[in-house]
Amino acid sequence: MVTAKKTADTTTTPRYAAPALEKGLNILEVLSDSYEGYTLNEISKKLDRSMNEIFRMVMTLERCDWVQVDENGRYSLTLRMFKLAHQHRPLRSLVSIATPLMRKLVNRARQSCHLTVLQDAKVVVIAQIDSPERWSFGLKVGALVGLRDTASGHVLLAYREEAERERILAQHGPVDGESTLTKSQLDKVLKQVRVSGYAETPSQQVKGIVNIAYPVFGPNQTVVACLNVPYLERVDLGVQPSVDELKEIVDGYAKELSEMMGYSSYNANP
Questions:
Q1: CB neighbour list of residue 220: distance below 8 Å, 6 or more residues apart
Q2: What is the spatial distance between Cα 254 and Cα 199, in angstroms, rounded to a whole number?
Q3: The model's pTM
Q4: N or C: which terminus of the chain carries fewer CB neighbours within 10 A?
Q5: Element (H, E) at 23
Q6: Which of helix, strand or coil describes residue 159?
Q7: Which residues does 194 contact at the CB level (< 8 Å), separation at least 6?
Q8: Dihedral angle at the C-alpha atoms of 140, 262, 159, 253, nearest 10 degrees?
């Protein structure tokens, strides 16, 4: 009996490969890390591919309205990716449920607040409500923030199993300006978050801001999001809640949101 000769090593070659699709997705991932965009030459260097390969794929992505080019020949993502993310039902449901609570929070706290989630080892802002005061500090919806050096990142990491945390940290690509902690330093911070039930961290990006962040739990005691208030202290005669009062406010709304997301035993040890 004649048997067919194996022509490929199935241990290293995917059974079903789509090189063009992989190339396109790689380009989108590269552009997602840049605020100002990249030229074709910069994209080709980052992906270690030829200009011809990159040119054909980028032209296709531009024609399909996934990327755009400016007068300097720099390519960036259009809002189509952002729109697609917000059409994703679980994310849309979380934002629609959280927004009314966040409005109540800012009116009581007199501070801005934002909601973050962990997607593809990146911390993403998915909702933001400005303070009702004359001034406010907030993050843009869709912005990426640090995983290792922010209160949001610490909360989103703290309640995960160690193996999952290691996988996330290994996959994470630092955002611009993100500082790094050693493993022992980060483990100590995350342990404190679990003991306290929240993170209180002086901003590593903007002087004078203290981030107060609480976890939002979903079914099966999983952390689905982080509710964060970047606290600005008034030094005039205006009255605002103290840091301790603010913690009670944020904690209460985080618990309420958790219950609305299906977490029926918030007081249990997560």
A1: none
A2: 13
A3: 0.66
A4: N
A5: helix 19-32
A6: coil
A7: 158, 159
A8: 50
> pLDDT tens-digit profile of 119-174?
888 899 999 999 998 877 888 888 899 999 999 999 999 999 888 899 999 888 88
Contact status, residue 248 vs residue 189, Cβ threshold 8 Å: no
CB 148, CB 170: distance < 8 Å: no
CB under 8 Å to 208, separation ≥6 — which residues?
Answer: 232, 233
What's phi and psi for 13, nearest 5 deg? -100, 125
Residue whose structure tokens are 């980060």: 186
DSSP string, 120-133: TTEEEEEEEE--SS
CA atoms within 13 A on the CB side of 157: 30
- Tell me the three state secondary structure of residue 104: helix
Q: Phi, psi at residue 149, to the nearest 5°?
A: -125, 20
Instruction: List pLDDT tens digits, range 225-259.
Output: 999 999 988 777 677 889 999 999 999 999 999 98
Give the total residue count for the chain: 270
